[in-house]
């Protein structure tokens, strides 16, 4: 046995001995008065009022078990005699003794157990009646102990599992009675009973694993084995917890007055480390060459490269009545792809072979980053992450409290399972700070909001019309780890450096660094967790908005995100030494953009817009309403950013079904991309072009309008979608102008009072719900990394891949009813109306 293993075993034995020694001392508070108060609260969600006889009976049985533990040499037969005396008094009234699922469910669980115990002695229905009574009484006593320091779920678990074993007729529930020992083989001690449950648990684990290895095994047999394992696992965990002494939760230490700790805000991409904090004493802000703490050598992402920030400014539009949201600003940013401003050697500039080498290095960097090749030294292997996790967990659990390495291991472990920066965790008062760490009952968790686009305060959209309930993400934390870290003194940077050096040597991980620990959760979520991907990893790991714009459009369920997170920790926890029972399901709700609308709501909006269009009072009004309607259809079936001048005719190929678009028209650097056109959109655009030509024929005297429509018909550099507006009074005739987002908003405000950016949220969410891969969604929606668009140098998608997304857009069109909607000409073709308020607005 190695020295570490021996120390761990000794520490475990010492802990077990201490728990056994303190088990009875911890229970001195258990008396008749305390029991009465506890019993009335156990699983009593219905505010049930216990009859005095019932409350007294439960108290007496619980005290009898308690006294048996304190006198381990006492014969279990004496305990049984006391239980029978209580039950023979028939404390539960006859009217409450109806034994059915529905009637039992009306009572708290601890009373359900008493009813079943009383029923069993009345009916004498089991050969193993005496054994059952003892174990049901032990379950009652255990549930009372759990109320002191453990979540209510633990209490429910042990009561429910024994209730089902007694009430159910299924062998998958009653098997436990055959396996539990009879009275002559029982010893009323915590250690003995704990051993009984543990042995049963290991037997069921082995049986389940054996069935899993047999591929031909019937599915029903596996399900029975899984149910048995779940039953004994819940009982064992609850019993061990009830008899484990827990330290009182340490008090939170407030940070010094000069340190301000703010809530996690993904929209804020600035540093959260105040320059005047104690962090500066750790030499954080030195150059990479002198400080390898937070940097990985030769890592492009984490090296300090001088960049002209003015080049990165987002050039967004402004519209009357519409404020520019953070999302819109960040949506117009484009992260620079790092390349040489000046080649390190002037010869490269004039040498094609050397330029080719430079290009291949850029390609290699991107492939390493995106494909996780084995050659990527910026990441550890899966086995490396698992070995690191096991080492940190062991040190954080078993090292003496006085050891600095225990605290270092705890902080690194916390960073590994949350993605929180180590620099932040060692700021005094950060761990446990209410802005970051939340407490719900006896649980710790981190809470952060996507916080990018706030839900509209629209009068036209009630809450039920939105796709997602909240945009809040919660990550549960092991309370023992937080309590340990709150109780200790924070280590210095030198302590971490020494501890990491030891880990590198002992684990054989020469590339181990703080940065690789902080990014471990994201790597395992995005690369090794089944059915997970980088987008979900971004959400759970709180990736800043500028690096993960797809988060604006997320739509997931809270339980699905929690399942992915737990799966990632299970992958870390390959040796099963990390207790994951603290991860329990949150309330079920949908998580994501507060601005995403349900498809039924959008369908209603489309129908209202079409009705509004058809109700036009004159030709000009019909023209403008038709144009706005098609503008929304265009946005809903492409996901483009709803900016000005969408869809230049020379970029639209209606025959092949392609749209080449640069929907960041005010950006200094163009970022053209391809979007497939579905058949329904092609038909609407074709019909709209025919509508324009028909309008031209009816108004041949309007020469400016005729010239613009000629350019559209011939496919020249002219936006397809147009608004009609009146010129100044001195002009002879109206003309056409490109549609601005503000026009679309103001003209349809009575139908939907929301920034037209809602169309982009809707499309992005629907594409994911319809199963389009993340890389394709990012390509179509315009969230690909720089130079990785389909037309870029390092494209990650083919044109054929993108073309296939047209069928998904067609599904969206069908769900919105757009497949059945046609563009109609204004019925009174000879009528030339006067300008309306809407036409006037187009001139503003």
From TrEMBL:
Name by which UniProt lists this protein: Uncharacterized protein
Biased composition (Low complexity): 1-20
InterPro entries: DNA_brk_join_enz (IPR011010), Integrase-like_cat_sf (IPR013762)
Compositionally biased tracts (Polar residues): 277-295
GO MF, one annotated term: DNA binding
Keyword Zinc: no
Organism for this UniProt entry: Psychrobacter fozii
UniProt KW keywords: DNA recombination
Keyword rRNA-binding set for record: no
């Amino acid at each position: 046995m190695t020295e570490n293993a021996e120390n761990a075993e000794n520490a475990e034995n010492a802990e077990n001995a201490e728990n056994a020694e303190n088990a009875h001392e911890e229970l001195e508070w258990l008396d008749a008065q305390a029991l009465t108060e506890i019993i009335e609260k156990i699983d009593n969600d219905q505010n049930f009022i216990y009859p005095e006889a019932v409350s007294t009976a439960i108290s007496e049985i619980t005290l009898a078990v308690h006294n048996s533990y304190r006198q381990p040499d006492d014969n279990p037969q004496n305990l049984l005699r006391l239980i029978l005396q209580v039950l023979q008094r028939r404390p539960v009234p006859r009217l409450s003794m109806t034994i059915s699922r529905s009637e039992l469910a009306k009572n708290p669980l601890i009373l359900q157990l008493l009813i079943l115990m009383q029923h069993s002695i009345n009916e004498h229905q089991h050969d193993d009646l005496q054994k059952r009574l003892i174990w049901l009484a032990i379950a009652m006593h255990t549930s009372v102990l759990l109320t002191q320091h453990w979540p209510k779920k633990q209490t429910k678990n042990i009561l429910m599992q024994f209730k089902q074993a007694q009430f159910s007729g299924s062998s998958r529930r009653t098997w436990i009675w055959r396996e539990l020992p009879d009275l002559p083989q029982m010893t009323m001690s915590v250690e003995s009973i704990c051993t009984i449950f543990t042995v049963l648990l290991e037997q069921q684990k082995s049986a389940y694993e054996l069935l899993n290895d047999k591929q031909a095994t019937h599915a029903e047999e596996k399900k029975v084995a899984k149910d048995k394992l779940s039953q004994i696992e819940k009982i064992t965990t609850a019993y061990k917890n009830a008899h484990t002494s827990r330290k009182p939760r340490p008090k939170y230490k407030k940070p010094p007055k000069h340190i301000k700790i703010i809530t996690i805000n993904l929209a804020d991409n600035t540093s959260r480390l105040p320059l005047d904090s104690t962090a500066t004493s750790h030499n954080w802000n030195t150059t990479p060459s002198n400080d390898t703490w937070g940097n990985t050598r030769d890592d492009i992402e984490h090296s300090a490269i001088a960049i002209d920030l003015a080049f990165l400014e987002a050039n967004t539009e402004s519209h009357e009545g519409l404020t520019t949201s953070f999302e819109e600003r960040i949506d117009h940013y484009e992260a620079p792809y790092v390349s040489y401003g000046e080649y390190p050697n002037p010869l490269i500039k004039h040498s094609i072979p050397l330029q080719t080498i430079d290009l291949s290095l850029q390609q290699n960097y991107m492939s390493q980053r995106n494909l996780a090749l084995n050659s990527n030294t910026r990441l550890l292997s899966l086995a490396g992450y698992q070995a690191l996790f096991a080492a940190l967990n062991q040190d954080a659990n078993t090292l003496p409290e006085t050891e600095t390495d225990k605290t270092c291991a705890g902080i690194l472990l916390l960073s590994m399972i949350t993605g929180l920066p180590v620099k932040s965790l060692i700021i005094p008062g950060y761990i446990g700070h209410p802005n970051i760490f939340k407490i719900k009952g006896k649980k710790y968790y981190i809470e952060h909001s996507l916080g990018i686009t706030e839900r509209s305060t629209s009068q036209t959209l009630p809450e039920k019309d939105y796709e997602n309930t909240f945009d809040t993400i919660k990550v549960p934390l092991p309370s023992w780890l937080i309590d340990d870290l709150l109780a200790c003194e924070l280590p210095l940077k030198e302590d971490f450096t020494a501890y990491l050096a030891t880990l590198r040597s002992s684990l054989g991980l020469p590339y181990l660094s703080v940065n690789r620990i902080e990014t471990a959760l994201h790597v395992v979520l995005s690369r090794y967790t089944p059915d997970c991907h980088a987008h979900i990893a971004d959400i759970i790991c709180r990736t800043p908005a500028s690096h993960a714009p797809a988060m604006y459009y997320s739509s997931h369920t809270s339980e699905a995100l929690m399942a992915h997170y737990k799966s990632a920790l299970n992958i870390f926890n390959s040796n099963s030494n990390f207790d994951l029972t603290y991860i329990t399901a949150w309330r079920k709700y949908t998580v994501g953009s507060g601005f995403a609308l349900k498809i039924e709501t959008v369908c209603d909006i489309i129908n209202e817009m079409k009705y509004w269009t058809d109700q036009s009072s004159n030709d000009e009004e019909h023209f403008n309403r038709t144009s706005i309607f098609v503008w929304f259809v265009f946005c809903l079936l492409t996901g483009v950013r709803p900016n000005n001048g969408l869809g230049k005719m020379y970029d639209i190929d209606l025959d092949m079904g392609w749209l080449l678009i640069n929907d960041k028209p005010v950006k200094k650097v163009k970022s053209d991309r391809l979007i497939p056109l579905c058949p329904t959109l092609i038909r609407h655009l074709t019909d709209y072009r025919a509508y324009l030509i028909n309008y031209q024929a009816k108004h041949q005297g309007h020469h400016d309008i005729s010239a613009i429509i000629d350019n559209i018909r011939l496919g020249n550099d002219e936006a397809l979608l147009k608004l009609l507006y009146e010129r100044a009074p001195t002009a002879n005739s109206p003309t056409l102008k490109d549609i601005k987002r503000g026009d679309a908003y103001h003209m349809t405000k009575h139908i939907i009072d929301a920034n037209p950016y809602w169309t982009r949220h809707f499309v992005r969410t629907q594409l994911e719900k319809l199963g389009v891969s993340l890389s394709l969604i990012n390509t179509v929606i315009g969230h690909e990394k720089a130079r990785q668009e389909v037309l870029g140098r390092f494209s990650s998608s083919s044109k054929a891949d993108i073309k296939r997304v047209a069928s998904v857009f067609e599904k969206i069109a069908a769900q919105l009813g757009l497949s059945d909607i046609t563009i109609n000409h204004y019925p009174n073709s000879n009528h030339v109306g006067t300008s309306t308020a809407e036409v006037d607005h187009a001139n503003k």
